[in-house]
Design goal:
The complex is a heterodimer of chains A (about 280) and B (about 325). Chain A has about 280 residues and is an alpha/beta fold. Chain A is about 25% helix and about 30% strand. In chain A, a hairpin with a 2-residue loop joins β7 (about 145-155) and β8 (about 160-165). Chain A is globular, with a radius of gyration of 21 Å. Chain B is elongated, with a radius of gyration of 21 Å. The chains are: A alpha/beta (about 280), B alpha/beta (about 325).
């Protein structure tokens, strides 16, 4: 199976409370925050690797995982780290977040899919900076492909995937015939979430994403990395959404510590009046 | 003047409350732009679910009922939304649950429309609609405009109070189900495994009792009595879900459910940024944690540093005692 995995770098989500919004609200200032791969995209890379290998012999590749990112030259770091964990090659579409929106990324990915002809586009359900949760669905529509969003489990069958989707109140299972778009949720990296046809049904992965060993980091530098111009993929680069300003969330007033359960209930009854 | 199309959500012939939040959005936009709104129901049982929608002031209630659409699949539902939207609508809206977030970007792409998800408010500004939406796990709000002729949005249920009936009697019209979209023949619904739950819906409850990893295997045993005595919904942190102590549909946070109850209990939850994103809008927050330095105490109105295995049962009996007093 040939899988295209779009990945995005984001400001360190574990320190998202440290972003600043200068007075006037013209922009979001992430200075001082490290760039990290979007967690959901890391999960998508892991799922793509699991689908292109036999879990018992992961060094032997049984398919191709191509990672693609949209960003400036520095985003090569994001691609190299995906290559180091096992992805086979990479593509950087030269651009910056400021000149992109979800629709434009989806249109550009369509052009890339038409060129690369993957069997599957596998991606995170959302990037944790914009929190929009849109590109996978848009891409599926533009391609006329079936989709399965918010995947918690993927099982490869002959020419199709059985996908368990996390929905409100339970799990909805779909069968999608390839080629298709699948977006992944948190639990796709659990030990028994993803099975390729090669992997034995009794096999269990380690929980989470795999880490790159030092030799793999070295050899990742030799893996192919192509660069593409945004205008080659999307001649009309106009945006459909425009952010006019930003503001920080309202601050919560500092609370109090109570000493006992009795005091807590007293406060809830008499002060907050919520019990 | 904006005409808004609300895509209703229902299951087993019963309307979901999320729909009422989307109607509130539509009423706001219609009023602010001297426009109007209609409500569309798609799927098997749409007719049955449409009954209670005639009293909200909609220009029309449009019903695409088809027994072949018993189970929701985006590829089969989106074309009817798209075809209806092309009949003179400027804004298409649904609530930002799993249904809306799955369906609406697909609709937007088919319409060539810009898309804003999870919006928390809307302002009609000189004829222009400006949407406010949370970003960066709720650590920033962006104000945005959609520049395409048709706009597609999903609304955050916790930020749009459910619409109340305004009287009136909107005409109910049947609309044809549009032919299935590209890709529809390559996707099959297999099953929906619903978690049976006697408690209020997490996103609708006025009291939520959430637990973290610290509860370990005793998650239910400790939290259920408290939820029972408060008629509360039960939530969980991502860590508790990932560890298997709680089912994943209970997850509150950036990528789980967003809740804004009157009273929120965070029990054994440290307060990771992505959890706070899902509950910071709660009116009163209570945190019980044995680590006095846990970040949850920075957002809690009332914090109790204690061993939860002792404090929670004590809390249950204290509340019971006062209730019977």
């Amino acid at each position: 199976m040939k899988i295209l995995v779009p990945v995005k770098r984001v400001s360190d989500p574990d320190n998202a409370n440290k972003i600043k919004i200068p007075a006037g609200g013209a922009k979001i200032d992430t200075t001082g925050l490290e760039w990290k791969p979007n967690p959901f995209d890391e999960y998508a890379v892991e799922a793509a690797l699991r689908l292109t290998e036999n879990g018992a012999t992961p060094k032997q590749r049984g398919g191709e995982a191509i990672v693609v990112t949209f960003g400036p030259p520095e985003t090569v770091t994001t691609l190299r780290s995906a290559l180091a964990t096992g992805a086979d090659r990479a593509i950087r579409v030269d651009s910056t977040d400021e000149i992109l929106d979800g629709s434009l990324v989806a249109k550009s990915l369509r052009a890339l899919v038409e060129k690369e002809k993957p069997d599957l586009v596998l991606m995170g359900k959302q990037a944790v900076d914009g929190d929009s949760n849109q590109v996978g669905q848009m891409l599926a529509e533009l391609l006329g492909w079936p989709m399965a969003t918010f995947a918690a489990t993927i099982k490869e069958e002959e020419g199709s995937l059985l996908v368990g989707r996390e929905v409100d109140g339970g799990v909805l299972t779909l069968r999608v015939k390839l080629p298709a778009v699948v977006t992944v949720d948190l639990r796709i990296v659990a030990p028994t979430s993803v099975y390729s046809k090669q992997t034995a049904p009794t096999f269990k992965y380690n929980d989470g994403v795999r880490f790159a060993a030092l030799p793999a980091i070295m050899s990742a530098k030799k893996k192919p990395l192509a660069e593409v111009k945004l205008t080659d993929l999307a001649p009309d680069a106009s945006l459909s959404i425009k952010y006019v300003s930003y503001e920080p969330p309202p601050a919560r007033k500092a609370g109090v510590k109570v000493k006992s359960v009795t005091e807590l209930v007293d406060k809830l009854v008499n002060e907050a009046k919520v019990l | 003047m904006a005409n808004v199309l609300v895509v209703a959500e229902f299951s087993e012939g019963k309307l979901k409350k999320t729909t009422h939040s989307a109607i509130t959005f539509a009423q706001t936009v219609a009023k602010g732009t001297s426009g109007s709104f209609s409500i569309l129901l798609i799927g098997g049982g749409a007719k049955a679910a449409s009954g209670e929608l005639a009293g909200f002031g909609a220009a029309k209630v449009l019903v695409a009922d088809d027994a072949n659409l018993a189970n929701y699949v985006a590829e089969r539902y989106a074309p009817t939304v798209v075809a209806t939207a092309k009949g003179g609508f400027d804004v298409v809206v649904t609530a930002a649950g799993a249904y809306g977030k799955d369906l609406m970007p697909r609709v937007a792409a088919a319409l060539g429309a810009g898309y804003a998800t999870d919006i928390s408010s809307v302002k009609a500004d000189g004829g222009k609609l400006v949407y406010k939406r949370p970003m960066f796990a709720g650590n920033a709000y962006g104000y945005c405009e959609i520049t395409t002729p048709v706009q597609v949005v999903t609304v955050r249920q916790s930020e749009f109070a459910p619409a109340q009936p305004t009287g009136g009697n909107s005409p109910v019209e049947a609309v044809a189900v549009a032919p299935a979209g590209a890709g529809a023949d390559r996707v099959t619904f297999v099953s929906l495994d619903q978690v049976k739950n006697e408690r209020p819906e997490l996103t609708e409850a006025s009291v939520v009792v959430s637990g973290g990893r610290a509860l370990k295997e005793r998650f239910k045993e400790v939290l259920d009595p408290l939820a029972d005595v408060l008629s509360a919904a039960v939530g969980a942190s991502r860590a508790a879900c990932d560890a298997g102590y709680a089912p994943s549909d209970l997850q509150v946070g950036q990528t789980g459910k967003v809740v804004a109850p009157k009273l929120y209990f965070a029990i054994g939850i440290s307060g990771a940024i992505q959890h706070l994103a899902g509950m910071k809008g709660s009116k009163v927050i209570v945190a019980i944690n044995k680590d006095g330095e846990a970040p949850i105490f920075q957002v809690a109105d009332y914090g109790l540093v204690a061993d939860l295995f002792q404090a929670v049962p004590e809390l249950v009996s204290e509340i019971k005692k006062r209730k019977s007093a």
